[in-house]
Amino acid sequence: MPESRASKPPPLLFQNARLVDPATGSETLGGLLALDGRIADIGPEATFAPEGARVIDCGGDVVAPGLIDMQAFVGEPGAEHRETIATASLAAAAGGVTTILASPTTSPVVDDPAVVDFVLRRARDTGRVRVLPMAALTKGCAGREIAEYGLLQQAGAACFSDGGRSVANALVMRYALTYARGFDALVAHFPQDRDLAGGGVMNEGETAMRLGLAGVPGEAETIALDRDLRLVALTGARYHATILAAPQSLDAFRAAKARGLPVTCGTTINHLTLNEADIGHYRTFLKLRPPLRCEEDRVTLVRALAEGLIDVIVSDHDPQDVETKRLPFGEAEFGAIGLETMLAAGLRLVHSGAVTLPRLLAAMSSRPAEILRLEQGRLQKGAPADLIRFDPDEPFVVDPEKLHSRCRNTPFDEALLQGVVKLTMVAGEVVYEA
């Protein structure tokens, strides 16, 4: 990681920038000085460049905090054929993501302090951005026995999750929440009743019937979420629902927040910008877990994001190789890459007027930082200089061959997007520049 390198990065002054601080919702025109890895000055009066500083005239481009992706699969250890920390962090930097939460569902699973240490060391040696390991909620992510949270947290685990696997046993989930509360640790859980989801591969409804594919009802998510929220009320633990896609779940979450429960939730950029109709003629790159829902459900998710009910947007970056995706839809693996396109896809919502730019960036930076208790995610003096510069209006066509991930399973293949990242900075050091 940049912050571990011996030499300090030179000062850098952004001029004529549109400064967007999602932590406060403010937008101003002015400058920003990054010095010794932190924001030294910001605002209309920030025009002084120290000796040896690099000066960049942004020409009205946005300068904002770097994005924090709370769910991404980085491949190491054990799945380097799908992704590595080096390739994932390069894709992240190119997409404006400066911090990645790495999924624990590797091989071996991140359920031992030694594996946490391995991920941190690999990130330090080969990563361009910050990589924070998620540790397993249960041993082997098998859902039967809780992991050693104290030792894993001490080793550097940012939170506890079984990735895209749901803990089916309510008693195990209660133990997990109770134990996590003792360490003030965050439990990040994917709510899905696996039995009710069954062998479903897409949203249950007319489209699934027409395509002849087994469907997953929204209740598979809502029933598991309702159980989790009741257990949170029982235990008082900090809880984050990693991905919500069913509108029924939003009502339950709204009620839980109104009760003051320590709960937050996220959704993916795919579920905010795509729907089941985009699957078309069995496009396996859009086979996702949870499945893409109907257009009405997508619009409901966007409204929940705009009002602040949905706290976080994630890429759910899940690289899959050709052998697992070039199969009949029902047999193909779930998952899509998304680190590099998350911001540009999200800007669709801004250009359509559905959400404001500060609100979008808050769900991708300042709110994840608050949930994870990180310093990043704000444009304020003294904050870490994890920054991005991008033009929100510049168009481009997504070419999978030009993406930096090791795999090419993007749901936005050949899509026209707007929003080109021109520079990404981590701890004051430029790690990507277009």
UniProtKB/TrEMBL annotation:
Molecular function in Gene Ontology: allantoinase activity; dihydroorotase activity; metal ion binding
Keyword Zinc appears in the UniProt entry: yes
Gene3D superfamilies given in the database record: Metal-dependent hydrolases (3.20.20.140), Urease, subunit C, domain 1 (2.30.40.10)
Family matches, as InterPro entries: Amidohydro_3, DHOase, DHOase/Allantoinase_Hydrolase, DHOase_cat, Metal-dep_hydrolase_composite, Metal_Hydrolase
Keywords (A to Z) from UniProt: Pyrimidine biosynthesis, Zinc
Keyword Calcium: no
Dihydroorotase catalytic domain sequence ranges: 60-245
CDD domains listed in its UniProt record: DHOase_IIa
Domain Amidohydrolase: 353-432
One GO CC term, this protein: cytoplasm
Superkingdom, taxonomy of origin: Bacteria
GO BP terms in the entry: purine nucleobase catabolic process; pyrimidine nucleotide biosynthetic process
NCBIfam families reported in the protein's UniProt record: pyrC_multi (TIGR00857)
Protein name stated in the entry: Dihydroorotase
